[in-house]
Design brief:
Elements: E1 2-3, E2 7-19, E3 22-31, H1 45-49, E4 64-71, E5 77-90, H2 92-99, H3 102-107, E6 116-127, H4 132-147, H5 154-163, E7 165-166, E8 209-212, E9 220-223, H6 236-244, H7 246-257, E10 261-266, H8 269-282, E11 291-293, E12 310-315, E13 328-332, E14 337-339, H9 353-365, H10 386-404, E15 412-416, E16 422-425, H11 427-434, H12 440-447, H13 449-458, E17 462-463, H14 467-474, H15 476-482, H16 486-504, H17 520-524, H18 537-553, E18 564-565, H19 572-579, H20 587-601, H21 605-618, H22 622-634, E19 641-643, H23 645-660, H24 670-678, E20 681-686, E21 689-692, H25 706-728, H26 730-744, H27 752-762, H28 768-797, H29 823-832, H30 850-868, H31 873-903, E22 923-933, E23 952-959, E24 962-969, E25 979-984, E26 988-994, E27 1007-1012, E28 1016-1022, H32 1028-1042, H33 1051-1054, H34 1070-1088, H35 1091-1099, H36 1101-1105, H37 1109-1112, H38 1138-1149, H39 1151-1159, E29 1176-1179, E30 1195-1198, H40 1203-1209, E31 1220-1224, E32 1231-1235, H41 1240-1247, H42 1257-1276, H43 1279-1284, H44 1290-1298, H45 1303-1320, H46 1343-1348, H47 1354-1357, E33 1381-1386, ...
Parallel strand pairs: 10-12, 10-13, 11-12, 19-20, 32-35, 33-34, 33-35
Antiparallel strand pairs: 1-7, 2-3, 2-6, 4-5, 5-6, 8-9, 13-14, 15-16, 17-18, 20-21, 22-23, 22-28, 23-24, 24-25, 26-27, 27-28, 29-30, 31-32, 36-37, 36-42, 37-38, 38-39, 40-41, 41-42
Helix pairs in contact: 4-5, 5-18, 6-7, 6-8, 6-10, 9-10, 10-16, 20-21, 20-22, 21-23, 22-24, 25-26, 25-27, 25-28, 28-30, 28-31, 30-31, 34-38, 41-42, 45-50, 48-49, 50-51, 50-54, 51-52, 51-54, 54-55, 62-63
Length: 1921
């Protein structure tokens, strides 16, 4: 029983106490005065009476009523029902004004103050029961008594209210007389007017119905709920849904469950209370346990910024103050909106639950929706009354919770039964069985406070049950079957709603409300009435005291609680399996797992090995993992299973694979099932030393998850406690259990919860001693388990090698490259954050050792579980003392195990394969066992189809030249393949340490990621057998080889020397080396130069030495020349030693000279005989490399420029690289020049005279004049210039302008203009604005630049331009022409210059790509082509990364400029390329221009010459750009030459018929440019090469002919042997100028960057290929001496070399031709001669034929028109076959049968006839039976009549005879019979036997006629003999 009202309070306006102009309320009276013991008076009632503040108002307001809720410190809720009315009083403001001065009154603004104001007064009932209507009626009655001045005293009514007692909940209760009944009125005179409650009649004994009266002629019925655990909601839930709508309420529902902050806004207080009550009602059975304030007073608004979740209601009046709350969900009840802030994410119900709930709710709230579209809707569809609708909505949520929590009781662990049940919920198992581990909503709900309360309230197995318990246990099946059918769901909901309604309204028919309301007139005319009176507290107290005394005397109320066993419902597993959510795992897979385990334990290791990959794949599935744990359990006997090494290894691999896919939660209990197994499986290592499986499976996150250990611990404790009681109550329980089994006919054993319920039922009946004994037993059970778990945890957390702090590794399963702090701490800190503060945490884990961190982890675990399961403090202390000892003991045993495990013979690992080495290549470090892990390329992993070649196991070898991995794939299915991945050490660009976890094996300690610029990446993980110091020494050796001290340490120089000791040259000082050089060269000067010339040179040296300070920084060229010109060395030619003569002739023979003579640019003859007509001459001014060290010794300069001038000119240019001619156009005679960019000073002095005074002004002037002269000389050497002007004067120049250009130029002009616009940006743009022209952006953009050159390219574009100085247009400029010389300059260099309009050259400023740009672009390109790890991010796709690298854009720029230059040269203008230092971009452009313009450079000789001339002689800095030595390491690898080769590749793709060499040739050069195998691409200039003595000794060494020093020699050798570099489509046009498309869209990614050959490594070292082929053939012969060989083979794109596996048709025919010649015994002809012959015959045939075939004309004709020739050139097998009309019988080689009368094959080759070495009278294939017990084999037989032999070969091509039968010994040839193993499907008559004196030979031909032929031939041969 409970009091209806605890306190009655009168609260009024406090007139005396106003704070800051705000009114206050104060309690005028309260009854009782003293607090009840069980319910203290709540503070702050006066605040809640007027939540918006106490104010006086000018007009009377209607009375109001609402219920506020206050929560006290014990989280008890008090309901404050406030009834507020308004009383009139004189305005206190007016009184104040009168008292004050009249003046002040005047000053104040004239606000008219009313004389009468109204103050609020509240009557408040405080109760712990929530009976809103009863309170409204009672307070209304008291007000009515006061207003209408009824006869009943107010004290009586209030006394009755405070003494009214009602039952809390229904049920049959004993009849008790009410406190104040009519027949027992106390006879005290003071209280004779006491009226009492109406005594219920005997027929209404049900206490759930209570009729009360307050003694003022009123009567009301209070219905108490039957079951008070169900909330009472009235119609508040229905109202909430009406106000906000379904979706909004569902959002609020989910937000409340997932602990968000919710704020309700409304202008009605009662609605706020109702909404909050409604939200709480639908959360049942969960109870809200955070801040709950349905009405929050305005003064307490700061409560809203609390960090904890809440549900609060606030009046809309304060809306503005709620705007800045960032994390609060605001529900506006009046507007019907819910506002969710951006930063708040609400997890919604999982689908399909959400959808089904919404459907059910809409059917309740809007039943018409379903029939809205029907033509004849049912007559009456109305939604239920609000009260009923309210219950229906609640029923939907009950149904929802029943589905969410179904089976929750099966995941409860009972860890103590006595004295109190202690129950824990196993969250992971619950989520796992529901397959909802990923579901955010359920995760948050289960982690929330509400659910924790739910478990503690509903966990106990023996208690009173309610509707929800019944629903979740007994109706699961029904819910599951009906969930998809909304109508059935509705029927169920209606049933539940009925029960809910009945619970709230047990007697809906009884309605005896009789409560008076105030009369109308009294409300309106209540003007001058008295205020609410002060009540007589004595009278009220009397009532209360009387009631208390009566209650004391009354007998105690005992409500027999109906406790019962709580049903558990069906177990979860069944539900889920029938739902079919569980991942399907076919029975076949489980069978594989079972078989494999059986094989392992039966020691059938080979079988197990075969099944292993399939098992590891199957273990990805959950059922297979569960199956594995069950199977392994069967092999454990008495907690132990001793295995041998191999068994142990396999079991550990399976365990690791199983654990690898477990999440850290272990939701399927797989880690839990494996925990006993890892401590059971073991192997003996030595005497008394055993290694358990746990030491090999520690690398999994699950072991570091505290929640996993807790769940495991609780489940074990539960099993032990269950066992405890099963034993003690053996007899009693067994009978009980048996009966249960018989009744239920289920053989499921009794669950722990049922057992606990039984024990709880019996507990009160036990004696004290028995009770104590049980408590102690349980406590010691928990204690012993805690010790057991401390041991288990130390097993799994202490690593095998405790010296290495493996716990400090991060345990990401991928490559975690950062080694973060201890993984134990990481995850522990996460999982334990809620239960421990981090001070006890692991900040110092790094410094402390493993033991400490493990001890701390176990201590925290023990603290948590022991506190929860009630272990005594003494026991806990004992545990804490034991843990360090346990850990220490375990460490000691582990040390012994670790020591022994090191001695184990390694498990049979694949044999390490030795790599084949090049001649001269030596091993630096022998093979170390490693695993090659796959990187981001997917081809080799099998993901794109094909076999999984990676990961592979093998060894890594470091040689003087390469880094080689060789091994076999880990996947057993492709185990016989060999995987090779290698790259040259010199190409290594990045090495970084990584840690790698291999999927199947244990942890592999550490790894390296090695990236090479040959587009290769090796990710290797060192095997555990490789010591870490060995790995470290490997890194050091690698680094040493990659960056030798000097270029002489590179492989190209050390090849053949001992690689172990790379000799380092002594460092010589520069001058000394120069002296030796000078002696060499100057001695030879005599041969070519007269004495006077040398003297003249000496005179000019003075100016050379007075160089301005600007050049002095160029230390490279700071050479003192005076000491070199030694008079004594110039005397007699006889003193020149022969070797030196050789040197000078070598200079002349150099590539440059040969090319200059080919181009007619001058010959090296004496100055007297040189013809004066030649415009250019070869100058020897630089033969000492004194003018420019990075130029070649011989240079082409204009005829009339003396050498002395060169010294002065070169200073204007960077690195002294002054302009020299490098090529001349054969038709237009325009020349191509190259130089470096100008010095800043040089630019200015070049274009205008200097303003500033320099130290030697004359010199500066003269230099710039010299420079102009020099350029003028070049211009005047052009025939077009000298033709138009008789003399080289400026007047002549004017007339040139007047002349019209020749017609071809007119045609060309617009084209050049377009090109120029592309390169320069659009001419129409306003100068100074940036335009995007082509891909370059504006190449003239800045205003300064446009000032310097206002009309760059105007003449080219054929446009007019005004005179720069703004004067009138000179007639001279009306018809402007192209300039004679265009200078392509760097835009940045040319700022500030001014062009003279009369000069005949024009500068084209362009933006060049910086070397840094190339370097960065290349890095990105490598990462795009060879990613280090697979990624699925869209912005990391190959094409996106390729675009970001900008490599194609850079190619486009270089090609674009080159094409422009080609056009200019073709129109007759000369071009000077003058960019950067003249050795990077300049070289690229100049080389490409020559390649495009001159067909000669597109041949083998020409291309070699081009590279030697432009790249090597003109000093491209190969060593520096390639970062080949330690000194250039910091500069990084910048592949300028590779970029050039890529450009050539792009041109080759567009013009495949113009190049003599193939794409492979370019790849070959690209590879060896980076490999340092040859000396060709080493060193920075000819000067460096001479200094090292390598310039002229490139012809291969006589001592070691195998070693080629020059890549060109090597290519020549190969080219002679095989057509690998030749392009069969080569069919050049005469003087064809190529003009490729250069836009990025026309460029293709070079396959050199993408392809790889895993079978043999890069295909660019041919010695390796031939050796590997020989080895492969030998092994094939050994392995396969019998069975017929298949002609088919599988080709894998990333494994095989496609060009060899599938050669093109011509190569194949040439190979066949060679093998045929060899077979016929002819000397084989060189392939090139054969090819040339075929081409010539083909040409003649083409001419003879009237209609040439398409393919032949395409391939061979040389008269193709000037159209673009890259379209549709396709070398098809059939096409080629027809066009190269070779009569080759290819099929004959395989199965040809000899046909009589047919000419011998050799006659077809009459044109290649040579002396026959052997006679072949008859030949063909026969099957021959081997000797005893050997099979039949097909062989190629040759009958030789001259030698009387029958010889046989393996095949037709085979040159070696495998055996022979001497016909001299033949006795008979007879028809045979088929024997064992003979070929199938062959007719019997095809067999014949040849008997000799030694043995009988059995043969089989293809058919009988063939056999007859053979027999006849042998017979005739015998008869001849």
């Amino acid at each position: 029983m409970a009091r209806l009202a605890d306190y009655f309070v009168v609260v009024g306006y406090d007139l005396d106490n106003r704070v800051e102009g705000e009114g206050q309320g104060r309690i005028l009276q309260r009854f009782p005065e003293k607090d009840w013991e069980d319910s203290p008076f709540p503070q702050g009632v006066e605040l809640f009476c007027q939540p918006s503040g106490w104010q006086l108002v000018p007009e009377r307001q209607p009375a109001s009523f609402f219920v506020a809720v206050l929560t006290d410190i014990n989280s008890e809720r008090h309901y404050c029902a406030c009834f507020t009315f308004w009383e009139g009083l004189d305005n206190p403001q007016l009184k104040k004004t009168e008292a004050g001065d009249a003046d002040e009154a005047d000053e104040e603004p004239a606000v008219v103050q009313p004389a009468k104001v109204f103050a609020p007064k509240s009557l408040v009932v405080v109760s712990r029961l929530d009976y809103t209507e009863a309170f409204r009626n009672c307070l209304g009655l008291i007000y009515t008594v006061h207003v209408d001045s009824l006869s009943t005293p107010l004290e009586t009514v209030i006394g009755n209210l405070l003494t009214c007692v009602i039952p809390i909940a229904g049920g049959s209760q004993i009849d008790e007389s009410p406190v104040c009944s009519l027949d027992k009125v106390p006879q005290s005179p003071a209280c004779d007017w006491l009226l009492a409650c109406l005594q219920p009649g005997p027929e209404e004994r049900e206490e759930s119905l209570r009729t009360i009266t307050l003694g003022a002629g009123d009567r009301q019925v209070i219905q108490t709920p039957i079951n008070d655990s169900l909330p009472v909601s009235g119609s508040s839930v229905a109202l909430l849904f009406r106000q906000l709508g379904i979706v909004n309420v569902l959002y609020l529902f989910c937000a409340a469950l997932t602990e968000h902050k919710i704020l309700f806004l409304s202008s009605s207080y009662q609605r706020l209370t109702d909404a909050c009550r409604g939200l709480l009602a639908i959360m049942f059975p969960l109870k809200y346990s955070f801040t709950y304030v349905p009405i929050l007073p305005g003064k307490l608004l700061e409560v809203l910024s609390t960090p904890t979740p809440f549900i609060i209601g606030v009046n809309s009046f304060f809306r503005s103050e709620t705007q800045e709350l960032l994390d609060v969900i605001i529900a506006d009840l009046d507007g019907g909106t819910v506002t969710i802030p951006e930063c708040v994410h609400i997890s919604l119900l999982p689908e399909p639950l959400l959808q089904q709930t919404q459907t059910a709710l809409s059917m309740v709230l809007d039943p018409e929706l379903e029939f809205a579209d029907q033509a004849f809707p049912p007559q009456s569809i109305q939604s239920s009354a609000h009260k009923i609708q309210d219950k229906e909505i609640r029923a939907v949520f009950l149904w929802l919770f029943a589905r969410l929590f179904q089976g929750y009781r099966w995941c409860l662990h009972i860890i103590r039964i006595h004295p109190e049940p202690v129950i824990r919920f196993h969250k992971a198992a619950f989520l796992g069985q529901r397959s909802l581990t990923e579901d955010d909503f359920l995760m948050k709900v289960l982690d929330g406070m509400a659910f924790a309360g739910f478990v503690s309230e509903r966990g106990p197995p023996y208690r009173a049950t309610d509707l929800f318990d019944d629903l979740v246990a007994n109706q699961v099946e029904r819910i599951r079957q009906e969930e998809t059918c909304p109508h059935k769901v509705m029927n169920h909901v209606k049933e539940l709603a009925e029960q809910l309604f009945k619970n709230e309204n047990p007697y809906p028919a009884v309605a005896m409300h009789k409560v008076q309301r105030p009369s109308e007139n009294s409300q309106n005319t209540w003007q001058g009435q008295t205020a609410f009176p002060v009540l007589d507290d004595v009278a009220v107290q009397l009532f209360i005291d009387h009631a208390v005394a009566k209650l004391k005397n009354a007998p105690p109320v005992v409500k027999a609680e109906l406790k019962s066993l709580v049903p558990s419902g069906p177990p979860l597993g069944d539900i889920v399996d029938r739902n079919g959510i569980v991942m399907a795992n076919s029975a076949r897979r489980l069978e594989v797992v079972r078989n494999c385990i059986t094989y392992i334990f039966d020691n059938k290791m080979l079988e197990a090995k075969k099944l292993m990959p399939a098992v590891l794949r199957a273990l990805k599935g959950r059922t297979a993992r569960i199956c594995l744990t069950q199977e392994l359990n069967q092999h454990v006997l008495q907690n132990r299973a001793v295995l041998d090494d191999q068994q142990f290894d396999y079991i550990v691999r399976m365990l690791n694979c199983t654990l690898q896919d477990c999440s850290h939660m272990d939701e399927h209990g797989i880690a839990a099932a494996l925990l006993p197994l890892v401590t059971a499986f073991c192997r003996k290592l030595g005497a008394g030393i055993t290694q358990f499986a746990y030491s090999c499976v520690q690398e999994h996150m699950v072991w570091t998850n505290m929640q996993f250990w807790e769940a495991m611990f609780y489940s074990d404790v539960q099993n032990h406690i269950k066992a405890l009681y099963m034993e003690t109550d053996d007899g009693a329980l067994q009978n009980n259990a048996l009966q249960q089994e018989q009744q239920a006919e289920s053989n499921r054993e009794i669950s722990a919860l049922d057992l606990a319920a039984e024990q709880n039922r019996l507990w009160p009946t036990l004696s004290k001693e028995m009770q104590m004994e049980r408590v102690q037993k349980e406590e010691s059970t928990v204690f012993s388990q805690a010790i057991h778990y401390a041991n288990r945890m130390s097993y799994l957390l202490l690593p095998l090698d405790t010296s290495k702090n493996r716990l400090l590794r991060s345990t990401g399963l991928g490559d975690v490259e950062s080694v973060s702090n201890s993984y134990v701490t990481n995850s522990i800190a996460g999982s334990m954050a809620e239960s421990y503060d981090t001070e006890s945490g692991f900040e110092d884990a790094e410094s402390s050792d493993v033991a400490n961190s493990v001890v701390r982890f176990i201590n925290r675990f023990v603290d948590k579980v022991c506190n929860e399961s009630g272990v005594t403090n003494e026991h806990l202390k004992a545990l804490h003392a034991m843990i360090p000892d346990i850990v220490q003991m375990h460490i000691e045993t582990l040390d012994a195990v670790h020591r022994e495990s090191k001695r184990l013979p390694p498990i049979q690992k694949p044999k390490l394969l030795r790599p084949t080495l090049l001649p001269g290549e030596e091993l630096v470090m022998d093979g170390m066992r490693v695993h090659l892990v796959h990187d981001g390329r997917e081809e080799a992993t099998g993901l794109m189809g094909g076999p999984p070649l990676l990961p592979a196991e093998g060894a890594i070898f470091l040689t003087t030249y390469r880094l080689i991995f060789k091994g076999t794939p880990s996947d057993a299915l492709v185990g016989e393949q060999i995987v090779t991945r290698s790259f040259p050490v010199a190409s290594l660009t990045k090495e970084k340490r990584i840690s790698v976890t291999l999927s199947m094996d244990q942890f592999v300690q550490e790894g390296l990621q090695l990236r090479s610029c040959t587009f290769q990446l090796m990710k290797i993980a060192f095997d555990e057998e490789v010591a870490s110091d060995l790995a470290e020494s490997f890194r050091k050796h690698l680094h040493k080889l990659r960056f030798p001290q000097h270029v002489q340490g590179t492989f190209a120089f050390t090849v053949g020397q001992s690689g172990k000791l790379v000799l380092e040259p002594k460092t010589k000082d520069k001058n000394q080396s120069l002296k030796t050089l000078s002696k060499n060269l100057v001695k030879n000067a005599k041969r070519t130069i007269s004495r006077q010339y040398v003297n003249r040179k000496k005179e000019s040296l003075t100016t050379w030495e007075n160089r301005s300070s600007l050049q002095s920084e160029m230390d490279e060229d700071e050479i003192s020349v005076s000491e070199e010109v030694d008079q004594s060395t110039l005397t007699l030619s006889s003193t020149i030693r022969s070797s030196d003569r050789q040197t000078m002739s070598n200079v002349v023979e150099r590539a440059c000279c040969r090319d200059y003579q080919r181009l007619g640019l001058g010959t090296l003859s004496s100055s007297l005989t040189r013809s004066k007509n030649e415009p250019f001459r070869i100058s020897t001014a630089n033969r000492m490399y004194t003018v420019c060290r990075s130029y070649p010794g011989l240079l082409i300069i204009p005829q009339n420029i003396p050498d002395s001038t060169i010294h002065r000119i070169c200073r204007c240019y960077r690195q002294n690289r002054f302009p020299v001619v490098c090529w001349r156009h054969s038709r237009t005679k325009s020349v191509l020049l190259r130089s470096a960019g100008l010095h800043a000073k040089g630019v200015v002095s070049f274009f205008k005279s200097p303003n500033t005074q320099t130290a030697v002004p004359s010199q500066a002037d003269s230099t710039s004049l010299e420079q102009e002269k020099y350029l003028q000389a070049i211009i005047s050497s052009m025939p077009s210039y000298s033709e138009t002007t008789g003399r080289n004067t400026l007047s002549g120049f004017t007339s040139t302008h007047m002349n019209t250009s020749d017609s071809s130029d007119k045609l060309r002009q617009p084209k050049i203009g377009d090109l120029m616009k592309q390169v320069l940006g659009n001419k129409e743009d306003v100068p100074g604005t940036f335009s995007r022209g082509g891909k370059f952006g504006s190449i003239r953009g800045s205003s300064r630049l446009s000032a310097f050159n206002p009309d760059v390219g105007t003449r080219l574009a054929g446009k007019e331009s005004p005179q720069p100085n703004g004067g009138p247009n000179d007639p001279l400029f009306l018809r402007q022409q192209k300039a004679y010389l265009y200078i392509i300059g760097d835009k940045a260099q040319l700022k500030g210059g001014k062009q003279d309009s009369f000069q005949q050259w024009e500068v084209i400023p362009i933006e060049v790509c910086d070397v840094r740009q190339v370097k960065n672009s290349f890095k990105k390109l490598m990462k795009a082509c060879v990613p280090s790890s697979p990624t699925s991010e869209p912005n990391k796709s190959f094409l996106r990364l390729l675009e970001e690298s900008e490599w194609m854009t850079l190619l486009h720029r270089v090609l674009q400029v080159s094409v422009l230059v080609v056009e200019l040269l073709d129109t007759g203008s000369s071009v000077m390329v003058s960019l950067e230092d003249g050795w990077d971009v300049t070289t690229q452009v100049v080389s490409l221009v020559q390649l495009l313009s001159d067909p000669y450079y597109r041949t083998f000789d020409g291309f070699r010459l081009l590279v030697e001339k432009e790249w090597l002689s003109f000093g491209h800095r190969f060593s520096h750009r390639g970062a080949q030595t330690l000194a250039s390491q910091s500069s990084g690898f910048t592949p300028v030459f590779l970029q050039f080769l890529d450009c050539v590749h792009q041109i080759h793709l567009q013009f495949p018929m113009e190049f003599e060499f193939s794409q492979y040739y370019l790849k070959f050069l690209a590879y060896h440019y980076m490999s340092n195998r040859f000396r060709t691409f080493l060193l920075d200039s000819d000067y460096d090469r001479i200094e090292l003595g390598v310039l002229y000794e490139e012809k291969s060494d006589r001592k070691n002919p195998q070693v080629c020093k020059s890549v060109w020699d090597y290519i020549d050798r190969l080219y002679k042997k095989a057509p690998v570099f030749y392009n069969y489509m080569f069919s050049p046009e005469d003087d064809e100028v190529l003009r490729p498309y250069t836009f990025v869209s026309n460029l293709k990614v070079w396959d050199f960057y993408l392809e790889e050959t895993l079978s043999e490594g890069p295909p660019y070292d041919w010695e390796l290929r031939s050796r590997q082929e020989r080895l492969a053939e030998e092994t094939a012969e050994k392995a396969d001496a019998g069975a017929p060989k298949s002609q088919r083979r599988i080709v894998w794109p990333c494994y095989d070399d496609l060009s060899r596996a599938m050669p093109d048709a011509i190569t194949k025919l040439l190979q066949d031709l060679q093998s045929l010649e060899a077979e016929l015994g002819q000397t084989s002809e060189k392939w090139k001669d054969t090819w040339d012959k075929i081409k010539t015959t083909q040409r003649t045939e083409t001419k003879l034929e009237s209609k040439p075939s398409f393919s032949s004309s395409l391939l061979m004709s040389s008269n193709l028109s000037h159209q673009r020739r890259s379209q549709g050139v396709c070398l098809q097998d059939s096409g080629v076959g027809s066009s190269i009309k070779l009569g080759l019988d290819c099929e004959a080689s395989a199965t040809s049968t000899p046909v009589s009368g047919r000419p011998s094959t050799s006659t077809l080759y009459s044109q290649f006839q040579s002396t026959e070495s052997e006679n072949r009278s008859f030949e063909g294939i026969l099957y021959k039976r081997g000797a005893l017990l050997k099979p039949w084999r097909p062989r190629w037989f040759v009958l030789d009549k001259t030698k009387h032999q029958l010889r046989y070969y393996d095949s037709r091509q085979d040159k070696e005879c495998k055996g022979m039968i001497d016909l001299g010994g033949v006795e008979s040839v007879t028809v045979g019979t088929p024997t064992m193993g003979a070929p199938k499907n062959v007719e019997e008559k095809a067999f014949f036997d040849v008997k000799t004196d030694k043995r009988m030979y059995n043969f089989c031909a293809q058919d009988s006629s063939n056999a007859q032929l053979w027999m006849d031939s042998i017979q005739s041969c015998l008869s001849d003999a």
